[in-house]
Design goal:
470 residues; binds adenosine-5'-triphosphate; elongated; alpha+beta; Beta Polymerase, domain 2; two-stranded antiparallel sheet; binds magnesium ion
Length: 470
């Protein structure tokens, strides 16, 4: 590992440290950005630590926002760059699961580094003197690719239960081994983890899932009991045997699926969250197969799983948009394509799933096939369906009610109806016919079909539609 140079630190941070130093204060870039500098990775964000008190920082930098004044953090603006400048501090426990109960300013850099979570995150670098401050053997652990708590691991993890999540997250994203003593401390910290706010848990979980191999972190959570605290529904899958189509139990299959599901670039939380949750309802829907002792069926695990995912993602305060996409992927993940599908079955599939969801759904299926652990090639299953869907989309055929050659107003006029839900039902019924035979999507033909469709009654239509699903 080469020693960092001042020129490795981007100019805004160098300028901020320089101004603090010129005013007689100590100033360092600190924490994860120094770790990433030493690893040759690009840092997600740069943090500055200083001996200057928050008021002094504000006075020195008129363009600044007191984002965390109580905890000593001022966000300094340098051009478009926002840099968190935090006064050296020591802190107490995080009883509320969000913030330390009290922080003390006026401490040394060494004391500030001692409050940090892992040795590789307890590093500081002075861009003026190029001095690297490393009181806890962070460089040694970086070289050994080891994630180790600063000081006594039980005390450190219990102070702030989020550090359990961070341990799993960094083990996965940095691809480091978790030091055995640090891992052994996790069970003692599960009570603290349970008090941590869901938003903080979510942020770490999402970062963990962005790793190349999330199972490195998920495995730590499962083994240590942390999974049962943050995602008890998923912990039910540990040891849940499946059937001849699966080599693994539900949890092992889930981890293999998550690893094999492309995360997107930059990682899209929806992709790996869908993989994580796709089989969440299998334990609750498991029923022994009468014809095959020791094997299980999981009827409706897709629909029950969509409901469970909804609950879990609301609990984790995942955004509405991401939650809706994950829930839809879980609900639709059990499609079973065979070459016998007719063209209208392909159209009905696209209409049912929605064109926008297809990339998410196929990403999951790619991971799911690999995750079955039977050496199958996802392309064999997906290649042909992808190509056929591509043709359907190119042909520009009607796939939604909005693509029909007549609109709600036409239905109302033609049948002398009052506006109401029945208009939408009739349009959906016409869409079913058009999905079957695209040549019907013509204004006159649809208007001609309307009276019959209306007379047939909606119950009848529902039955036809259910029967026709691919
Ligand atoms: P990332 O690459 O995601 O930014 P990071 O290590 O920089 O990871 P941040 O959340 O940006 O993590 O925090 C910056 C630094 O603050 C950490 O490197 C660590 O020194 C310290 N830190 C952050 N959260 C905690 C915590 N919960 N307990 C102790 N120290 C923490
Ligand atoms: Mg950071």
């Amino acid at each position: 590992m080469t020693a960092p140079r001042a020129s490795d630190v981007p100019a805004p941070m160098r300028r901020i440290c320089q101004r603090l130093r010129a005013a007689g204060h100590g100033a360092y870039v600190v924490g994860g950005c120094v770790r990433d500098l030493l690893l040759g990775r690009s840092a997600a964000d740069w943090d500055v630590a200083t001996s200057a008190l928050p008021e002094a920082v504000q006075a020195l930098f008129p363009r600044s926002i007191p984002t965390g004044l109580k905890h000593g953090t001022i966000t300094v603006l340098d051009g478009d760059t926002q840099v968190e400048v935090t006064t050296f501090r020591s802190e107490g426990a995080y009883a509320d699961g969000r913030h330390p109960d009290r922080v003390t300013f006026g401490v040394t850099l060494d004391e500030d580094l001692a409050r940090r979570d892992f040795t590789v995150n307890a590093l500081a670098f002075d861009p003026e003197t190029e001095r690297l401050v490393d009181p806890h053997g962070g460089q040694r652990d970086l070289a050994a690719r080891l994630l180790r708590a600063v000081g006594d691991p039980v005390a450190r993890l219990c102070e702030d239960g989020l550090r359990v999540m961070r341990a799993a997250r960094f083990a996965a994203t940095l691809e480091f081994e978790l030091d055995p003593a640090t891992e052994a401390a996790i069970p003692a910290a599960l009570g603290s983890l349970a008090r941590v706010s869901q938003e903080r848990v979510r942020d770490e979980l999402v970062k963990l899932l962005g790793a190349r191999t999330p199972s490195r972190g998920l495995g730590i959570l499962a083994r240590s009991g942390a999974l049962a605290v943050i995602l008890p529904e998923l912990a039910e899958g540990i040891g849940q045997v499946q059937n001849r189509y699966h080599h693994h139990d539900v949890w092992t299959h889930t981890m293999a699926t998550v690893d094999a599901t492309p995360a997107g670039d930059p990682p899209d939380p929806v992709r790996r969250l869908s993989a994580l949750l796709h089989d969440v309802a299998k334990p609750r829907t498991a029923a022994p197969r009468e014809d095959a002792p020791g094997e299980f069926t999981f009827y409706r695990h897709d629909l029950v799983g969509a409901e469970l995912s909804e609950t879990i993602l609301r609990r984790l305060r995942v955004s509405n948009r991401d939650r809706e996409r994950v829930v839809a992927v879980v609900a639709h993940h059990m499609f079973w394509y065979t070459p016998e599908w007719t063209d209208s079955a392909v159209r009905r599939f696209v209409a049912k799933v929605g064109e926008g969801l297809l990339p998410d759904l196929f990403a999951l299926r790619e991971g799911d096939v690999v995750g079955r652990g039977r050496g199958e090639d996802p392309d064999v299953e997906l290649g042909e369906l992808r190509a056929r869907i591509g043709r359907v989309l190119e042909e520009d055929q009607a796939l939604t009610v909005g693509d029909l050659a007549i609109k709600g107003g036409d239905v109302i006029t033609a049948l002398a109806l009052r506006p109401g839900p029945v208009v939408g039902e009739l349009l959906r019924a016409l869409l079913e016919l058009v999905l079957e035979d695209p040549s019907l999507n013509d204004r006159d033909r649809l208007l001609a079909l309307l009276p019959e469709v209306h007379a047939n009654g909606l119950t009848n239509l529902h039955a036809t539609r259910a029967k026709n699903l691919p």
